[in-house]
Design a protein that fits this description.
Largest sheet: 5 strands, parallel
CATH class of the largest domain: Alpha Beta
Strand order of the largest sheet: 5-2-1-6-7
Bound molecules: D-mannonic acid
Mean pLDDT: 96
CATH architecture of the largest domain: 3-Layer(aba) Sandwich
Number of domains: 2
Structural class: alpha/beta
Number of helices: 22
Helix content: 40-55%
CATH superfamily of the largest domain: NAD(P)-binding Rossmann-like Domain
Length: 496
Protein backbone atom coordinates (compact mmCIF):
# COMPACT_ATOMS: atom_id res chain seq x y z
CA UNK A 1 0.00 0.00 0.00
CA UNK A 2 1.50 3.31 -1.15
CA UNK A 3 1.45 6.18 1.32
CA UNK A 4 -1.14 8.81 0.33
CA UNK A 5 -3.46 11.28 2.07
CA UNK A 6 -6.30 8.79 1.74
CA UNK A 7 -4.31 6.11 3.51
CA UNK A 8 -3.66 8.29 6.58
CA UNK A 9 -6.53 6.74 8.52
CA UNK A 10 -5.21 3.25 7.92
CA UNK A 11 -1.69 3.89 9.19
CA UNK A 12 -0.38 2.59 12.54
CA UNK A 13 -2.00 4.71 15.25
CA UNK A 14 1.27 5.44 17.07
CA UNK A 15 2.83 7.13 14.02
CA UNK A 16 3.27 10.91 14.50
CA UNK A 17 1.59 12.81 11.67
CA UNK A 18 0.47 16.33 10.72
CA UNK A 19 -2.73 17.46 12.40
CA UNK A 20 -2.79 20.90 10.72
CA UNK A 21 -4.79 21.83 7.65
CA UNK A 22 -2.58 20.96 4.69
CA UNK A 23 -4.65 23.01 2.26
CA UNK A 24 -3.36 26.28 3.74
CA UNK A 25 -1.33 28.55 1.42
CA UNK A 26 2.17 27.84 0.18
CA UNK A 27 4.58 30.39 1.71
CA UNK A 28 7.88 28.74 0.80
CA UNK A 29 9.29 27.64 -2.53
CA UNK A 30 12.24 25.30 -2.17
CA UNK A 31 14.80 24.77 -4.93
CA UNK A 32 16.62 21.44 -4.93
CA UNK A 33 14.24 19.09 -3.14
CA UNK A 34 16.65 16.34 -2.11
CA UNK A 35 16.77 14.16 0.98
CA UNK A 36 18.48 16.89 3.00
CA UNK A 37 15.61 19.34 2.66
CA UNK A 38 13.09 16.64 3.57
CA UNK A 39 15.02 15.75 6.74
CA UNK A 40 15.82 19.34 7.74
CA UNK A 41 13.97 22.50 6.68
CA UNK A 42 10.71 20.69 5.81
CA UNK A 43 10.69 19.14 9.30
CA UNK A 44 11.04 22.61 10.89
CA UNK A 45 8.18 24.01 8.78
CA UNK A 46 6.09 20.97 9.67
CA UNK A 47 6.70 21.70 13.37
CA UNK A 48 5.86 25.37 12.81
CA UNK A 49 2.45 24.58 11.32
CA UNK A 50 1.93 21.89 13.94
CA UNK A 51 2.47 24.69 16.49
CA UNK A 52 -0.41 26.63 14.89
CA UNK A 53 1.40 29.03 12.53
CA UNK A 54 -0.28 29.23 9.12
CA UNK A 55 0.85 29.76 5.58
CA UNK A 56 4.17 27.92 5.49
CA UNK A 57 3.43 25.01 3.19
CA UNK A 58 6.29 24.30 0.80
CA UNK A 59 6.19 23.97 -2.97
CA UNK A 60 9.35 22.10 -3.90
CA UNK A 61 11.19 22.12 -7.18
CA UNK A 62 13.67 19.75 -8.72
CA UNK A 63 16.12 21.50 -10.98
CA UNK A 64 17.16 18.49 -13.00
CA UNK A 65 15.15 15.28 -13.02
CA UNK A 66 11.55 14.28 -12.32
CA UNK A 67 12.60 11.56 -9.85
CA UNK A 68 11.60 13.30 -6.60
CA UNK A 69 8.34 14.57 -8.11
CA UNK A 70 7.50 10.96 -9.05
CA UNK A 71 8.21 9.90 -5.47
CA UNK A 72 6.32 12.67 -3.66
CA UNK A 73 3.43 13.83 -5.86
CA UNK A 74 1.62 10.45 -5.91
CA UNK A 75 1.94 10.53 -2.09
CA UNK A 76 0.30 14.00 -1.85
CA UNK A 77 3.66 15.32 -0.64
CA UNK A 78 3.62 13.06 2.44
CA UNK A 79 6.70 11.14 3.50
CA UNK A 80 8.34 9.51 6.51
CA UNK A 81 11.31 10.95 8.33
CA UNK A 82 13.02 7.96 9.94
CA UNK A 83 15.41 8.94 12.74
CA UNK A 84 17.99 6.28 13.57
CA UNK A 85 20.49 6.60 16.35
CA UNK A 86 22.59 4.00 18.14
CA UNK A 87 20.09 4.25 21.02
CA UNK A 88 16.96 3.64 18.97
CA UNK A 89 14.71 4.88 16.19
CA UNK A 90 11.63 7.03 15.67
CA UNK A 91 9.37 7.64 12.69
CA UNK A 92 7.31 10.69 11.82
CA UNK A 93 5.11 11.59 8.87
CA UNK A 94 5.97 15.03 7.56
CA UNK A 95 3.21 17.06 5.91
CA UNK A 96 4.78 20.41 5.02
CA UNK A 97 5.44 19.67 1.34
CA UNK A 98 2.48 20.59 -0.84
CA UNK A 99 3.80 19.38 -4.17
CA UNK A 100 6.88 19.19 -6.36
CA UNK A 101 7.53 20.95 -9.66
CA UNK A 102 10.13 19.85 -12.20
CA UNK A 103 11.90 22.96 -13.43
CA UNK A 104 13.20 21.68 -16.79
CA UNK A 105 9.67 20.51 -17.74
CA UNK A 106 8.07 23.86 -16.99
CA UNK A 107 10.32 26.71 -15.85
CA UNK A 108 7.40 29.17 -16.14
CA UNK A 109 5.43 27.26 -13.48
CA UNK A 110 8.36 27.51 -11.08
CA UNK A 111 8.86 31.21 -11.77
CA UNK A 112 5.18 31.87 -11.19
CA UNK A 113 5.30 29.89 -7.91
CA UNK A 114 8.21 32.03 -6.72
CA UNK A 115 6.51 35.23 -7.79
CA UNK A 116 3.11 34.38 -6.27
CA UNK A 117 1.92 36.96 -3.72
CA UNK A 118 1.82 34.41 -0.83
CA UNK A 119 5.42 33.26 -1.41
CA UNK A 120 7.57 35.01 1.18
CA UNK A 121 10.58 32.76 1.18
CA UNK A 122 12.65 30.86 -1.35
CA UNK A 123 14.93 28.30 0.30
CA UNK A 124 17.74 26.47 -1.48
CA UNK A 125 19.66 23.21 -1.18
CA UNK A 126 21.21 23.01 -4.62
CA UNK A 127 24.68 21.79 -3.49
CA UNK A 128 27.84 23.81 -3.83
CA UNK A 129 28.05 23.51 -7.61
CA UNK A 130 24.42 24.61 -8.11
CA UNK A 131 25.24 28.26 -7.43
CA UNK A 132 27.52 28.45 -10.50
CA UNK A 133 30.28 30.14 -8.51
CA UNK A 134 34.03 29.76 -8.75
CA UNK A 135 34.62 27.58 -5.65
CA UNK A 136 37.75 29.42 -4.62
CA UNK A 137 36.76 33.08 -5.17
CA UNK A 138 32.98 32.78 -4.93
CA UNK A 139 32.47 34.89 -8.08
CA UNK A 140 29.63 34.02 -10.51
CA UNK A 141 30.83 31.97 -13.50
CA UNK A 142 29.51 34.56 -15.95
CA UNK A 143 31.27 32.94 -18.88
CA UNK A 144 29.79 29.46 -18.25
CA UNK A 145 27.65 28.15 -21.11
CA UNK A 146 24.53 27.64 -18.97
CA UNK A 147 24.74 31.15 -17.48
CA UNK A 148 25.22 32.65 -20.94
CA UNK A 149 22.26 30.67 -22.20
CA UNK A 150 20.11 31.94 -19.29
CA UNK A 151 21.12 35.51 -20.11
CA UNK A 152 20.08 34.93 -23.71
CA UNK A 153 16.76 33.30 -22.65
CA UNK A 154 15.82 35.01 -19.37
CA UNK A 155 12.29 33.55 -19.41
CA UNK A 156 13.47 29.95 -19.67
CA UNK A 157 16.31 29.85 -17.17
CA UNK A 158 17.90 26.60 -16.00
CA UNK A 159 20.45 27.88 -13.47
CA UNK A 160 19.80 29.01 -9.90
CA UNK A 161 20.93 32.64 -10.46
CA UNK A 162 18.80 32.73 -13.64
CA UNK A 163 15.70 31.34 -11.91
CA UNK A 164 15.98 33.61 -8.86
CA UNK A 165 16.51 36.68 -11.03
CA UNK A 166 13.57 35.83 -13.31
CA UNK A 167 11.27 35.42 -10.31
CA UNK A 168 12.47 38.61 -8.61
CA UNK A 169 11.96 40.49 -11.91
CA UNK A 170 8.40 39.15 -12.10
CA UNK A 171 7.69 40.31 -8.53
CA UNK A 172 9.06 43.75 -9.28
CA UNK A 173 6.89 43.97 -12.41
CA UNK A 174 3.83 42.93 -10.36
CA UNK A 175 4.54 45.49 -7.63
CA UNK A 176 5.22 42.79 -5.01
CA UNK A 177 7.93 42.83 -2.36
CA UNK A 178 11.01 40.73 -3.01
CA UNK A 179 10.94 37.32 -1.37
CA UNK A 180 13.72 36.39 1.03
CA UNK A 181 16.28 34.03 -0.50
CA UNK A 182 17.60 31.61 2.12
CA UNK A 183 20.54 29.43 1.12
CA UNK A 184 20.82 26.20 3.13
CA UNK A 185 23.97 24.84 1.53
CA UNK A 186 27.36 24.20 3.11
CA UNK A 187 29.18 27.18 1.67
CA UNK A 188 30.72 30.02 3.64
CA UNK A 189 28.75 33.27 3.68
CA UNK A 190 26.07 31.42 1.72
CA UNK A 191 23.66 34.39 1.83
CA UNK A 192 26.25 36.91 0.64
CA UNK A 193 27.45 34.61 -2.09
CA UNK A 194 23.93 33.92 -3.34
CA UNK A 195 23.22 37.65 -3.32
CA UNK A 196 26.42 38.41 -5.23
CA UNK A 197 25.56 35.75 -7.82
CA UNK A 198 22.03 37.10 -8.33
CA UNK A 199 23.24 40.71 -8.50
CA UNK A 200 25.95 39.82 -11.03
CA UNK A 201 23.39 37.97 -13.15
CA UNK A 202 20.76 40.73 -12.83
CA UNK A 203 23.30 43.41 -13.73
CA UNK A 204 24.11 41.60 -16.96
CA UNK A 205 20.35 41.54 -17.67
CA UNK A 206 19.17 44.97 -16.52
CA UNK A 207 21.01 47.39 -14.18
CA UNK A 208 17.69 48.79 -12.84
CA UNK A 209 16.65 45.32 -11.79
CA UNK A 210 20.02 44.85 -10.12
CA UNK A 211 19.49 48.05 -8.13
CA UNK A 212 15.98 47.03 -7.06
CA UNK A 213 17.23 43.64 -5.84
CA UNK A 214 20.20 45.23 -4.07
CA UNK A 215 17.91 47.72 -2.32
CA UNK A 216 15.00 45.50 -1.38
CA UNK A 217 15.81 41.78 -1.33
CA UNK A 218 17.15 39.95 1.74
CA UNK A 219 19.64 37.09 1.41
CA UNK A 220 20.28 35.84 4.95
CA UNK A 221 23.09 33.39 5.57
CA UNK A 222 22.37 30.19 7.40
CA UNK A 223 24.15 27.22 8.92
CA UNK A 224 22.39 23.89 8.52
CA UNK A 225 23.41 20.66 10.17
CA UNK A 226 21.94 17.18 10.06
CA UNK A 227 23.50 14.04 8.63
CA UNK A 228 21.21 12.69 5.90
CA UNK A 229 22.53 9.71 3.94
CA UNK A 230 20.94 8.95 0.58
CA UNK A 231 17.90 6.67 0.97
CA UNK A 232 18.39 3.18 -0.49
CA UNK A 233 15.88 0.71 -1.88
CA UNK A 234 16.68 -1.49 1.12
CA UNK A 235 15.60 1.35 3.47
CA UNK A 236 12.27 1.67 1.62
CA UNK A 237 11.69 -2.10 1.68
CA UNK A 238 12.58 -2.31 5.38
CA UNK A 239 10.15 0.49 6.25
CA UNK A 240 7.41 -1.24 4.28
CA UNK A 241 8.06 -4.47 6.16
CA UNK A 242 7.80 -2.95 9.62
CA UNK A 243 5.26 -0.16 9.03
CA UNK A 244 2.99 -1.76 6.44
CA UNK A 245 3.02 1.05 3.87
CA UNK A 246 5.30 1.84 0.96
CA UNK A 247 6.96 5.24 1.01
CA UNK A 248 9.11 5.98 -2.05
CA UNK A 249 10.03 9.42 -0.64
CA UNK A 250 11.16 8.46 2.87
CA UNK A 251 14.36 9.88 4.31
CA UNK A 252 16.62 8.51 7.03
CA UNK A 253 18.59 10.71 9.38
CA UNK A 254 20.05 11.13 12.86
CA UNK A 255 18.38 12.67 15.91
CA UNK A 256 20.71 15.69 15.93
CA UNK A 257 19.56 18.75 14.00
CA UNK A 258 20.66 22.39 13.99
CA UNK A 259 19.69 25.48 12.00
CA UNK A 260 21.15 28.93 12.61
CA UNK A 261 19.62 31.70 10.47
CA UNK A 262 20.65 35.29 10.03
CA UNK A 263 17.70 37.48 11.01
CA UNK A 264 17.33 39.43 7.74
CA UNK A 265 14.02 39.09 5.87
CA UNK A 266 12.53 41.22 3.11
CA UNK A 267 8.99 39.84 3.33
CA UNK A 268 6.91 37.92 5.87
CA UNK A 269 9.24 36.10 8.28
CA UNK A 270 8.46 32.61 9.59
CA UNK A 271 8.80 32.58 13.42
CA UNK A 272 11.24 29.70 13.24
CA UNK A 273 12.58 30.45 16.72
CA UNK A 274 9.37 28.79 17.98
CA UNK A 275 10.62 25.45 16.70
CA UNK A 276 14.24 25.51 17.79
CA UNK A 277 15.91 27.55 15.03
CA UNK A 278 18.50 29.99 16.28
CA UNK A 279 17.91 33.44 14.78
CA UNK A 280 21.04 35.55 15.02
CA UNK A 281 22.92 38.55 13.65
CA UNK A 282 26.05 36.56 13.02
CA UNK A 283 26.04 33.17 11.36
CA UNK A 284 29.64 33.30 10.16
CA UNK A 285 31.21 31.89 13.31
CA UNK A 286 28.75 28.95 13.34
CA UNK A 287 29.32 28.32 9.65
CA UNK A 288 33.05 28.18 10.13
CA UNK A 289 32.79 25.75 13.05
CA UNK A 290 30.54 23.46 11.09
CA UNK A 291 32.47 23.57 7.83
CA UNK A 292 35.90 23.15 9.39
CA UNK A 293 35.12 20.64 12.15
CA UNK A 294 32.24 18.54 10.81
CA UNK A 295 32.59 18.82 7.06
CA UNK A 296 36.40 19.01 7.11
CA UNK A 297 36.69 15.73 8.98
CA UNK A 298 33.87 14.20 6.92
CA UNK A 299 35.80 14.81 3.70
CA UNK A 300 38.95 13.46 5.38
CA UNK A 301 37.11 10.27 6.33
CA UNK A 302 35.58 10.04 2.86
CA UNK A 303 38.81 9.98 0.83
CA UNK A 304 40.99 8.05 3.27
CA UNK A 305 38.21 5.72 4.36
CA UNK A 306 37.05 4.87 0.85
CA UNK A 307 40.64 4.37 -0.33
CA UNK A 308 41.14 2.04 2.64
CA UNK A 309 38.21 -0.03 1.38
CA UNK A 310 35.41 1.05 3.74
CA UNK A 311 31.87 1.77 2.60
CA UNK A 312 30.41 3.81 5.47
CA UNK A 313 31.47 6.57 7.86
CA UNK A 314 30.94 4.47 11.00
CA UNK A 315 33.11 1.69 9.58
CA UNK A 316 35.98 4.07 8.87
CA UNK A 317 35.62 5.58 12.35
CA UNK A 318 36.07 2.11 13.87
CA UNK A 319 39.18 1.24 11.81
CA UNK A 320 42.66 1.62 13.34
CA UNK A 321 43.91 5.21 13.49
CA UNK A 322 40.87 6.92 11.92
CA UNK A 323 39.34 8.36 15.09
CA UNK A 324 42.77 9.73 15.97
CA UNK A 325 43.15 11.24 12.49
CA UNK A 326 39.81 13.00 12.94
CA UNK A 327 41.05 14.36 16.29
CA UNK A 328 44.21 15.58 14.56
CA UNK A 329 42.12 17.45 11.97
CA UNK A 330 40.14 19.05 14.80
CA UNK A 331 43.32 19.94 16.69
CA UNK A 332 44.49 21.78 13.58
CA UNK A 333 41.15 23.47 12.85
CA UNK A 334 40.14 24.52 16.35
CA UNK A 335 42.63 27.40 16.77
CA UNK A 336 41.26 28.99 13.57
CA UNK A 337 37.72 29.33 14.97
CA UNK A 338 36.14 32.29 16.76
CA UNK A 339 33.89 30.60 19.25
CA UNK A 340 30.47 32.25 19.52
CA UNK A 341 28.84 32.50 22.94
CA UNK A 342 27.59 29.12 24.04
CA UNK A 343 30.07 27.11 21.99
CA UNK A 344 32.27 24.57 23.74
CA UNK A 345 34.75 22.84 21.45
CA UNK A 346 35.22 19.74 23.60
CA UNK A 347 31.47 19.11 23.83
CA UNK A 348 31.06 19.71 20.10
CA UNK A 349 33.90 17.32 19.25
CA UNK A 350 32.53 14.60 21.53
CA UNK A 351 29.11 14.92 19.97
CA UNK A 352 30.63 14.69 16.47
CA UNK A 353 32.53 11.54 17.41
CA UNK A 354 29.27 9.95 18.50
CA UNK A 355 27.44 11.15 15.39
CA UNK A 356 30.10 9.76 13.05
CA UNK A 357 30.09 6.43 14.92
CA UNK A 358 26.29 6.01 14.47
CA UNK A 359 26.02 2.51 12.94
CA UNK A 360 22.33 2.84 12.11
CA UNK A 361 22.75 5.49 9.40
CA UNK A 362 25.02 3.71 6.92
CA UNK A 363 26.31 6.99 5.54
CA UNK A 364 28.23 6.24 2.37
CA UNK A 365 31.77 7.62 2.11
CA UNK A 366 31.47 7.89 -1.67
CA UNK A 367 28.46 10.21 -1.21
CA UNK A 368 30.66 12.59 0.80
CA UNK A 369 33.60 12.22 -1.61
CA UNK A 370 31.46 13.64 -4.42
CA UNK A 371 32.17 17.18 -5.70
CA UNK A 372 35.41 17.53 -3.71
CA UNK A 373 36.59 20.43 -5.88
CA UNK A 374 33.63 22.45 -4.60
CA UNK A 375 34.11 21.41 -0.97
CA UNK A 376 37.85 21.49 -0.36
CA UNK A 377 38.27 25.29 -0.28
CA UNK A 378 35.98 25.90 2.71
CA UNK A 379 36.44 22.56 4.47
CA UNK A 380 40.22 22.12 4.41
CA UNK A 381 42.07 24.80 2.43
CA UNK A 382 40.88 27.86 4.35
CA UNK A 383 42.08 26.26 7.58
CA UNK A 384 45.39 25.33 5.97
CA UNK A 385 45.92 28.90 4.73
CA UNK A 386 45.20 30.44 8.13
CA UNK A 387 47.52 28.05 9.91
CA UNK A 388 50.27 28.65 7.38
CA UNK A 389 49.95 32.41 7.83
CA UNK A 390 50.57 31.89 11.54
CA UNK A 391 53.57 29.65 10.89
CA UNK A 392 51.81 26.46 12.02
CA UNK A 393 52.28 23.13 10.27
CA UNK A 394 49.19 21.15 9.17
CA UNK A 395 50.15 17.53 8.57
CA UNK A 396 46.64 16.13 9.10
CA UNK A 397 45.06 18.63 6.69
CA UNK A 398 47.81 17.86 4.18
CA UNK A 399 47.18 14.12 4.47
CA UNK A 400 43.47 14.72 3.81
CA UNK A 401 44.23 16.92 0.77
CA UNK A 402 46.75 14.37 -0.52
CA UNK A 403 44.03 11.71 -0.19
CA UNK A 404 41.73 13.90 -2.31
CA UNK A 405 44.58 14.09 -4.85
CA UNK A 406 44.96 10.30 -4.77
CA UNK A 407 41.19 10.00 -5.28
CA UNK A 408 41.41 12.11 -8.46
CA UNK A 409 43.38 9.23 -10.05
CA UNK A 410 40.06 7.38 -10.36
CA UNK A 411 41.60 4.04 -9.44
CA UNK A 412 41.32 2.26 -6.11
CA UNK A 413 44.18 0.56 -4.28
CA UNK A 414 43.41 -2.72 -6.04
CA UNK A 415 43.75 -1.02 -9.41
CA UNK A 416 40.01 -0.97 -10.15
CA UNK A 417 38.74 2.10 -11.98
CA UNK A 418 35.96 4.24 -10.46
CA UNK A 419 34.26 7.41 -11.59
CA UNK A 420 35.37 10.65 -9.96
CA UNK A 421 32.03 12.38 -9.49
CA UNK A 422 32.97 16.05 -9.65
CA UNK A 423 32.27 18.98 -12.00
CA UNK A 424 36.05 19.54 -12.36
CA UNK A 425 36.90 15.84 -12.88
CA UNK A 426 38.02 16.40 -16.46
CA UNK A 427 40.42 19.13 -15.30
CA UNK A 428 41.97 17.06 -12.53
CA UNK A 429 42.25 14.09 -14.90
CA UNK A 430 44.00 16.20 -17.53
CA UNK A 431 46.36 17.70 -14.92
CA UNK A 432 47.36 14.26 -13.68
CA UNK A 433 47.79 12.90 -17.20
CA UNK A 434 50.14 15.75 -18.06
CA UNK A 435 52.07 15.38 -14.79
CA UNK A 436 53.22 11.78 -15.27
CA UNK A 437 53.99 9.34 -12.44
CA UNK A 438 56.01 11.38 -9.91
CA UNK A 439 54.11 12.52 -6.77
CA UNK A 440 55.90 15.88 -6.79
CA UNK A 441 54.70 16.57 -10.34
CA UNK A 442 51.21 15.37 -9.54
CA UNK A 443 50.94 17.66 -6.51
CA UNK A 444 52.24 20.62 -8.54
CA UNK A 445 49.83 19.94 -11.40
CA UNK A 446 46.78 19.74 -9.14
CA UNK A 447 47.79 22.75 -7.02
CA UNK A 448 47.93 24.77 -10.24
CA UNK A 449 44.12 24.48 -10.65
CA UNK A 450 43.22 27.97 -9.47
CA UNK A 451 39.48 27.39 -9.21
CA UNK A 452 40.25 25.05 -6.30
CA UNK A 453 43.56 26.18 -4.84
CA UNK A 454 43.84 29.86 -5.80
CA UNK A 455 47.33 30.95 -6.80
CA UNK A 456 48.97 31.17 -3.40
CA UNK A 457 49.52 27.58 -2.26
CA UNK A 458 51.65 26.35 -5.12
CA UNK A 459 54.69 28.37 -3.96
CA UNK A 460 54.59 27.48 -0.28
CA UNK A 461 57.39 25.01 0.32
CA UNK A 462 56.20 23.74 3.72
CA UNK A 463 52.77 22.87 2.36
CA UNK A 464 53.97 21.46 -0.95
CA UNK A 465 56.60 19.22 0.71
CA UNK A 466 54.10 17.83 3.18
CA UNK A 467 51.58 17.13 0.41
CA UNK A 468 54.25 15.36 -1.65
CA UNK A 469 55.35 13.30 1.37
CA UNK A 470 51.75 12.32 2.13
CA UNK A 471 50.90 11.43 -1.47
CA UNK A 472 54.09 9.36 -1.74
CA UNK A 473 53.17 7.42 1.40
CA UNK A 474 49.57 6.95 0.30
CA UNK A 475 50.69 5.56 -3.04
CA UNK A 476 53.31 3.24 -1.63
CA UNK A 477 51.70 2.01 1.61
CA UNK A 478 47.99 2.54 1.02
CA UNK A 479 45.51 4.57 3.04
CA UNK A 480 44.73 2.00 5.76
CA UNK A 481 48.40 1.58 6.70
CA UNK A 482 49.11 5.33 6.59
CA UNK A 483 46.20 6.08 8.93
CA UNK A 484 46.83 3.10 11.23
CA UNK A 485 50.45 4.14 11.68
CA UNK A 486 49.46 7.69 12.66
CA UNK A 487 51.09 9.28 9.63
CA UNK A 488 49.35 12.62 10.17
CA UNK A 489 50.92 13.08 13.57
CA UNK A 490 54.27 11.68 12.45
CA UNK A 491 54.83 13.91 9.43
CA UNK A 492 56.91 16.77 10.58
CA UNK A 493 57.51 19.24 7.80
CA UNK A 494 60.85 20.98 7.88
CA UNK A 495 59.29 24.35 7.16
CA UNK A 496 55.63 25.11 7.59
C1 LIG B 1 28.65 15.83 4.03
C2 LIG B 1 27.48 16.72 4.44
O1 LIG B 1 28.10 14.98 1.90
C3 LIG B 1 28.84 15.75 2.54
O2 LIG B 1 29.72 16.40 1.97
O3 LIG B 1 29.82 16.31 4.64
O4 LIG B 1 26.38 16.50 3.66
C4 LIG B 1 27.14 16.54 5.93
O5 LIG B 1 26.60 15.26 6.18
C5 LIG B 1 26.17 17.60 6.39
O6 LIG B 1 26.70 18.85 6.10
C6 LIG B 1 25.87 17.45 7.87
O7 LIG B 1 25.16 18.55 8.31
Amino acid sequence: MRLTRKQLDHLPSGLARPSYDRSQPVGVVHLGLGAFHRAHQAVYFDALMQAGERGWMIRGASLRSGRVAAQLNPQDGLYTCHVRDAEGEARQLVGSIHDVLVAPDDPAALISAMSAAETALVTLTVTEKGYRLDPQSGALLLGAADIQSDLANPDRPTTVPGLLTAALAARRAAGLAAFTTLSCDNIPDNGRRTRAAVLAFAKARDPDLERWIADTAAFPSSMVDRIVPATTLADIDALENVAGYRDEAMVKTEGFTQWVVEDWFSDRRPPLELVGVEMTDDVAAWERIKLRLLNGSHSTLAYLGALAGHDFVHQAMAAPGFADLVEAIWDEAEPTLDAPAGFDAATYRNALTRRFANPALEHSLVQIAMDGSQKLPQRLLATLRERHARGDASPALCLAIAAWMRWQMGQDEQGRAFEVDDPLASQTRAALAAAGPEPADQVAALLAIEAIFGNDLVGRAGIVDTLVAALTELRSRGAAACVASGLARAMNPADA
